[in-house]
């Protein structure tokens, strides 16, 4: 594998976008957990599946374009990029949960599940990114 | 990766709902009036489970999870107890009271609590599996 192959394999951009997304989503989940006993509170979330679809579309587009520019994630209803390239999430209220006595529709178990899954995605993306940089570092070390 | 915990979490929610129903039964074992102050002995409730969890986010959770389909009110769960002189006593001195056996309710509560723990263990196992896979990958 050439050095270009290691540095420009395309996974780095996708991993970076995933880490940004998971980091932003954690704020929303923390907000939901903080409001677990707030009357009338309706929990907010962004759909990770919609994000993954947007990401895969961006990867497809980049592959078709055939150049090595950065990933351009298309804006969706819940997801857009600001001028500095940061992901901005606009959470919408998921429906379908049962309203509790205080008209709060959060299940603490579901929130914890969301948090655990989000953490797992964050951790695995960081680990994969770290292993890529390790790979690059060892390639450099053995060449010099 | 998303949704691996759906089934265990659905089980936890169902067992917690069941536990809440049992708590309501224990708390209302001596309730004779409804909220408006009319004579209406509390009727024992029971959470009914069914496979599949419509609130789950993934198809495996929707097909294989569990959810509370109904909280049934047992219409005949009433007994007569001899309480002469009670304001709600009939002419023979009997009052119709909720047929709630605290021992049965406690057993059910313990079972719900153990089942909740079992679901937590299953969620922990799912997490460990993900971590192990991650150690293999990265």
Q: Calculate the mean pLDDT score of chain B and round it.
A: 90
Q: What does the oligomeric state look like here?
A: heterodimer
What structural class do helix, strand and pairing data of chain B support?
alpha+beta
Strand order of the largest sheet of chain A: 1-2
Number of strands of chain B: 4
Overall structural class of chain A, as computed from helix and strand content, comes to mainly alpha
Q: Give the helix proportion of chain A (percent range).
A: 55-70%
- Largest beta sheet of chain B: what is the strand line-up? 1-2
Give the termini distance of chain A in whole angstroms.
Answer: 17 Å
Secondary structure tally, helices of chain A: 4
Query: What gross morphology of chain A would you assign?
Result: elongated
Query: What order do the helices and strands of chain B follow?
Result: HEHEEEH
Short description:
The complex is a heterodimer of chains A (144) and B (138). By secondary structure, chain A is mainly alpha-helical.
């Amino acid at each position: 594998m050439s050095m270009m192959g290691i540095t420009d394999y395309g996974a780095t951009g996708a991993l970076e976008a995933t880490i940004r997304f998971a980091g932003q989503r954690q704020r929303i989940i923390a907000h939901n957990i903080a409001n677990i006993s707030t009357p009338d509170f309706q929990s907010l979330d962004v759909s990770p599946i919609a994000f993954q679809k947007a990401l895969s579309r961006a990867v497809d587009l980049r592959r078709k374009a055939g150049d090595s520019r950065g990933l351009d994630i298309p804006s969706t209803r819940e997801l857009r990029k600001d001028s500095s390239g940061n992901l901005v999430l606009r959470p919408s209220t998921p429906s379908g949960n049962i309203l509790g006595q205080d008209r709060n529709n959060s299940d603490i178990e579901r929130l914890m599940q969301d948090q655990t899954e989000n953490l797992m995605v964050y951790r695995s993306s960081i680990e994969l990114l770290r292993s890529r940089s390790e790979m690059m570092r060892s390639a450099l070390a053995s060449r010099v | 990766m998303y949704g691996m915990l759906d089934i265990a979490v659905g089980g936890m929610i169902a067992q917690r709902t069941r536990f809440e129903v049992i708590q309501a039964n224990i708390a209302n074992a001596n309730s004779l009036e409804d909220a408006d102050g009319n004579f209406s002995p509390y009727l024992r409730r029971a959470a009914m489970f069914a496979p599949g969890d419509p609130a789950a986010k993934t198809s495996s959770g929707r097909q294989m999870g569990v959810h509370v389909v109904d909280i049934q009110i047992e219409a005949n769960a009433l007994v007569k107890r001899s309480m002469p002189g009670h304001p709600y006593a009939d002419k023979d001195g009997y009052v119709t009271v909720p047929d709630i056996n605290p021992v049965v309710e406690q057993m059910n509560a313990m079972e719900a609590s153990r089942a909740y723990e079992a679901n937590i263990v299953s969620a922990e196992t799912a997490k460990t599996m993900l971590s192990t896979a991650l150690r293999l990958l990265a």
